[in-house]
Amino acid sequence: MSATPPPTPVGVRTLTEALRRFDADALTRLLGLRPDLAYPVPADVAELSAQATTTSSVTRALDGLNAWQRVVAEALAALPDPAALGDLAALLGAEPAGCSAAVVDLRERALLWGADDELHLVRAARDHLGPYPGGLTPPSSRPLDPGTVDTLLAEAGPEARAVVDRLLWSPAGAVSGADRAVTVGTARTPLEQLLARRLLRPAGSDTVLLPREVAWHLRGERFTPEPVPVTAPTLTGRVRTPALVDRAAVGAAYGFVHDVELVAHTLQSTPHRLLREGGVAVRDVTGLGRVLGTDHQHATFVLECGAASGLLAVGDGGRLLPTVDYDRWAEREPADRWRALAAAWRHSDRLPGAASEPGAHALGPESEAPGAASVRGLLTELLAQAPVGTVLDLTDLLDVVSWHRPRLVRVGGVALESVLSWTWREAGWLGISSLGAVSGLAGAALAADTHPLPADLAEAFPATVEQIVLQADLTAVAPGPVPYRLARELRLLADQESRGGAAVFRFSGASLRRAFDAGWSAADVHRWLEHHATTDPPQPLAYLIDDIARHHGSIRVGPAQAYVRIADPAQVAALLTHPDASVLGLRELAPGVLVATAEPYEVVDFLHRIGHSPAGEDSSGRSVTAPDPLRAPRRSAHRPRPDVQAGEAAAAVLLGEQSRHTRRSVQAGAGAGPGADPGATAANLSRLATAEQTQEPVRIRYVAADGRPAARELRAVRADAGLVRGVDVASAETVSIAMSRVSSVDPAVRTSPLD
């Protein structure tokens, strides 16, 4: 939201007094610019001021400044405290208006307080910027005038001038015997010539300093080696036709959605277990790349993005599987599915590009990179501001990002240039850029958390089709994207041979046996084709269906641990003489009835392997179908993030608004914190007692150990000794939460992190 700048705090003596003059808009903006101050919510303005001046918080705030704001902060640190706006502009050689705007920015961030003629930079900021901000030492007690400096340097000689030049922007030099007694007559070395003439001054026994006035004069009265732009460089370039770029971008976006769906289908049907040290084996990722018809890097990104969205996770036995949220996601419209993926990508603190490097693994620990989300968010914001169709150069992009985040050199140990290169490539896969240019989906990705796609972009996604075209070569062509339910049934009946909006599926004996194993009959397959095909099944396909159906189920398998019923004596003899029969413990109990010491599924796999088509049955002889697809437990798509509503709620508390609505907003958005309402605590205890009696699950919101808001669904809840105990519904682990950290207790409502 837009916020008016806080008023110039005239006559204030401390930062706390300055913050007390902030209105709701100014407080909300402060908590938006420095979100760490809202978790947990400060009890009052004094506590907010204390949190805002801690070393860790100030360091994060300074790292978030752009190049101009950072230079202004350094200049204030180089000036005596307090400083005047006029002195600041003179030191920087800049227009007062530009300095004034930066002062307002620093004041909004609570890094600075005081009126324009009495500006106080907070002490933690001065300490962070070091003893020599801007490469200037503190003012000398006996400064040299510029003319004297030139005269003394000429006397010291050119070698001494070279020493001075090395210290112009970094004024401290290490040297032994810096405090030696030396005069102009006894000076022998260039260093001694400078010390004797007070062009260098000792700071202890092993350090010399270049005096402030000497550096300032020799620099040409410049605070920085090169001028720092007051405003950000603009992203410019030649412009492609926006409509063409958007069409290509939507095609890439839908293709990526389809890739995630295809990978999830492959994972649920083919085991992919994570390595002991974490991550997916390179050969498995390469195999998924073959399924997608793409390379290792793209397949890695699909896996990383699917996991970040909470669609893929590790299930039983370390196997990578779709989660219980995947089916809900797959049933959405393509535009909404893309929006969930784009939001998860933007907020993920991982670098998929690092996971695709040699020696690394998809979903492995190598791609963990705290701060990656902020870089991605900044890049998305910059792309959204550029006109649609603008062709960008990576070097220009690096320059603009470097202005916005001058302290950002590496992310997760990786050079910023590599991170931007990977991010730009990923933006192309997602459709945020296309044909080397910015697309309209950049703005949609920026607002993907809260807003649906604009109507024109949403309508550009291909519409789903319910009909397929059967061909005589045993293939079926889907002329457009098919709904999730139809796609799942089609992939059961046939093998997908191509990806994209219009896909090709091939029927075969193996694929039809897969459907019969799942409980379909020949009549079911014919009815399905009659309903979804535009024409009658070609004769080769109809014959294949009926032929596979006649042979399917001629062998019956059940538990004994397993038994096998066979009508054909020749088949019995062939099985009993097979080399693997003894491994399975197969033996004949009666004519046509065999038993095995192996599990039924092992016997079924063996029979498939040697060319038979068995059908499973239970202990009463009834045919059984394949189990439901395996799913991993639900995982959070990404960690809770500060937002505008949380900032507004925290600002309301700090302003003393005690309404129930505001209190509930604070608790739901940022945890109970020190300002929790006693009435709300009593209500929480009452709900916990009711849940304990009824054994109904509840959803508990609380402040986690790292100060961030969190939520869990718990069953078998008990509240005693100041703790809430229960079993997490998603992970089945037993957890204990301090009652003092609980912000709200509500009936359990299954909500996906993708919503």
Topology of this protein?
Blueprint: H1 15-20, H2 24-33, H3 45-52, H4 55-63, H5 67-78, H6 85-92, H7 96-108, E1 112-113, E2 120-121, H8 123-128, H9 146-156, H10 158-166, E3 172-174, H11 190-196, E4 201-202, E5 207-209, H12 212-218, H13 242-269, H14 282-292, H15 296-308, E6 312-314, E7 320-322, H16 326-330, H17 334-347, H18 352-355, H19 372-385, H20 394-404, E8 410-411, E9 414-415, H21 416-430, E10 433-434, E11 437-438, H22 441-446, H23 455-460, E12 469-470, E13 475-478, H24 484-493, E14 495-496, E15 503-506, H25 509-517, H26 522-532, H27 539-551, E16 555-558, E17 562-566, H28 569-576, H29 581-584, E18 587-590, E19 593-596, H30 600-609, E20 615-616, H31 644-654, H32 660-670, H33 678-694, E21 698-703, E22 709-720, E23 723-728, E24 734-738, E25 742-747
Parallel strand pairs: 16-20
Antiparallel strand pairs: 1-2, 3-5, 4-5, 6-7, 8-9, 10-11, 12-13, 13-15, 14-15, 16-17, 17-19, 18-19, 21-22, 21-25, 22-23, 23-24
Helix pairs in contact: 2-31, 5-7, 6-7, 10-11, 13-15, 13-17, 14-15, 25-27, 31-32
How can the largest sheet be summarized?
Answer: 5 strands, mixed
- Number of separate helices: 33
Percent of residues in beta strands: 5-15%
Instruction: State the secondary-structure class.
Output: alpha+beta
DSSP E strands, number: 25
Strand order of the largest sheet: 18-19-17-16-20
Oligomer type? single chain
User: Which stretches of 5+ consecutive residues score pLDDT under 50?
Assistant: 636-644, 657-676, 750-755
Pfam family, one: Helicase_C_3
GO molecular function: helicase activity
Region (Disordered): 612-647, 659-681
InterPro entries: XPB/Ssl2_N (IPR032830)
